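Customer escalation, tier 2.

The customer says the design service returned an amino acid string that "doesn't look like it belongs to this structure." They asked us to rerun it and document both sides in this ticket. The original structure tokens are below, unchanged.
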């Protein structure tokens, strides 16, 4: 099943969360049994889906948010060009990204990128990366070394 889908550029948050639910269905979680789906909307209106993919060695496991971002970059999108990301999981409150995903989202998505968080019950929380990761470490913090 091909999860990449063409959508209108102006997509509302509920529609983007529905796209995240599609990705949620493909999560590979034999160890934690905790599925997460993500849907990243690019500047051209294309949705890039991501789901968490676990590994018995644990550290190679990749979260849904990073899967969607890496897939979009691999498909030729520029960092910072994304319109929004939605994330959904089976949680009591709307799910939130882990610290590693927040760092990657801040750099590749941008600090002002809207983040729509949801759960299977239909609860929604809207925020931005700047709110999720205040004082983020971003590329501008790196200084070029003199040779």
């Amino acid at each position: 099943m091909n999860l990449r889908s063409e959508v209108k550029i102006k997509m509302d948050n509920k529609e983007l969360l529905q796209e995240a639910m599609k990705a949620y269905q493909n999560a590979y979680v034999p160890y934690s049994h905790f599925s997460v789906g993500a849907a990243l909307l690019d500047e051209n209106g294309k949705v890039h889906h991501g789901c968490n993919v676990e590994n018995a060695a644990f550290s190679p496991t990749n979260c849904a948010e990073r899967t969607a971002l890496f897939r979009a970059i691999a498909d030729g999108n520029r960092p910072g060009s994304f319109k929004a990301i939605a994330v959904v999981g089976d949680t009591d409150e709307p799910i939130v990204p882990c610290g590693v995903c927040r760092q990657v989202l801040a750099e590749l998505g941008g600090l002002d990128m809207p983040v729509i968080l949801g759960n299977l019950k239909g609860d929604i929380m809207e925020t931005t990366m700047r709110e999720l990761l205040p004082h983020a470490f971003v590329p501008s913090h790196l200084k070029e070394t003199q040779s």
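Tier 2 assessment: The sequence is consistent with the input. The beta strands are 5-6, 36-42, 46-51, 82-89, 114-119, 124-128. Residues 103 and 137 are 7 Å apart (CA to CA). Sent an explanation to the customer and offered a walkthrough call.
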